[in-house]
Design brief:
The protein is an alpha/beta fold. Helices cover about 40% and strands about 20% of the residues. The protein has ten helices and 14 strands. The chain has helices at about 15-25, 45-60, 75, 100-120, 135-140, 155-170, 210-225, 225-235, 240-255, 300-320; strands at about 5-10, 35-40, 65-70, 85, 125-130, 150-155, 180, 180-185, 190-195, 200, 205, 260-265, 280-285, 290-295. The radius of gyration is 19 Å and the shape is globular. The relative contact order is 0.13. 1,4-dihydronicotinamide adenine dinucleotide binds near residues 41 and 89.
Length: about 325
């Protein structure tokens, strides 16, 4: 058996974590031969609820669960962490403007970035799930000057998975037949789900669907799916978000499927003309615990316009918290 790795999860008593933690502990994220120590962070008032979640984790008697740490101190929860899933965030309260939301979260993610910088493993792989995820990841990254910016990512895998299922339904195929899906940009309603490279059982997706369906049905459905779930369920997507976090981390740690890629919001190196340093979702392949942006994807005018719109939103979010960025 391998030595245990340390997996920190914030917002550990929340909805997403209630699905996520059990799947990490069962080996679905890092493999059935990889023991894990869960290091759980919550705010002080939620520590009692976290105790209950930890009791349930114990009661599963997971063979791979090598320990549980519970804390309201980020320097305890992130100590030597090999993986950090930053799920906890401040939700939008009544009367809160987008700017207030950005600022409230900037306070949380700057503190957590500093704590990661101080105590986590130098190779820690960070996934930000809490919204606004891309900008929260940017803030954490900028507050962790001693860590490689490539270690900070944000989640657009849920959008990617939503796009796979919508296309599978439309083309009467299985998600197993679909490859080369890309979500570009922000995890928000400006995200751009791009079908131009997608293959359905080896055939170009754009040859199987009408442009009108693509532009006026598929794209808005994927963009608005989160809101549609809140309307139907009366609560935001939790199990599917946890599932996407598992997919994101598993691919990053263990590699993407041969001949395919995935979508990850990562530190832009200027590829495809996207401003350097933004946390922007690109098509990525992963191998040996590292990711790489897929190069050479053809961008037509339709795509370019949408890629720029979501880039502009991210730049505006960054500028709104500029005074809080080191
Ligand atoms: P939730 O409200 O059920 O749980 C959040 C938990 O975070 C709470 O237990 C809260 O006490 C904790 N928390 C708040 N501030 C914290 C801090 N500073 N340190 C540690 N813990 C803290 O929310 P849920 O449903 O679990 O969602 C979590 C976040 O994920 C939300 O921001 C949501 O918008 C986001 N989300 C992101 C998705 C994506 O695709 N990127 C998809 C779905 C949700």
């Amino acid at each position: 058996m391998k030595a245990p790795v340390r997996v920190a999860v914030t917002g550990a008593a929340g909805q997403i974590s209630y699905s996520l933690l059990f799947r990490i502990a069962s080996g679905e994220m890092l493999g059935k031969d990889q023991p894990v120590i869960l290091q759980l962070l919550e705010i002080t008032p939620a520590l009692e609820a976290l105790k209950g979640v930890s009791m349930e984790l114990e009661d599963c008697a997971f063979p791979l669960l090598a320990g549980i740490v519970q804390s309201d101190d980020a320097t305890v929860a992130f100590k030597d962490a090999d993986y950090a899933l930053l799920v906890g965030a401040r939700p939008r309260g009544p009367g809160m403007e987008r700017k207030d939301l950005l600022e409230a979260n900037a306070a949380i993610f700057s503190a957590q970035g500093k704590a990661l910088n101080d105590v986590a493993s130098r190779d820690v792989k960070v996934l930000v799930v809490g919204n606004p995820a891309n900008t929260n990841a940017l803030i954490a990254q900028r507050n962790a000057p001693d860590l490689d910016p490539r270690n900070f990512t944000a989640m657009t895998r849920l959008d990617h998975n939503r796009a796979l299922s919508q296309l599978a339904n439309k083309t009467d195929s299985s998600v197993n037949d679909i490859t080369h899906m890309t979500i570009w940009g922000n995890h928000s309603s400006t995200q751009y789900p791009d079908l131009h490279q997608v293959k359905v059982a080896g055939t170009a997706a754009m040859d199987k669907v009408e442009q009108d369906w693509y532009a006026n049905d598929f794209i808005p459905t994927v963009q608005q799916r989160g809101a549609a779930i809140i309307k139907a369920r009366g609560a935001s997507s939790a199990a599917s978000a946890a599932n996407a976090a598992i997919d994101h981390m598993r691919d990053w740690a263990l590699g993407t499927a041969e001949g395919d890629w995935t979508s990850m919001a990562i530190f832009s190196d200027g590829s495809y003309g996207i401003q350097e340093g933004l946390i922007y979702s690109f098509p990525c392949t992963c191998k040996g615990g590292d990711w790489e942006i897929v190069q050479g994807v053809e961008i037509n005018d339709f795509s370019r316009e949408k890629m720029i719109a979501t880039e502009q939103e991210l730049a505006a979010e960054r500028d709104a918290v500029a005074h809080l960025l080191p």
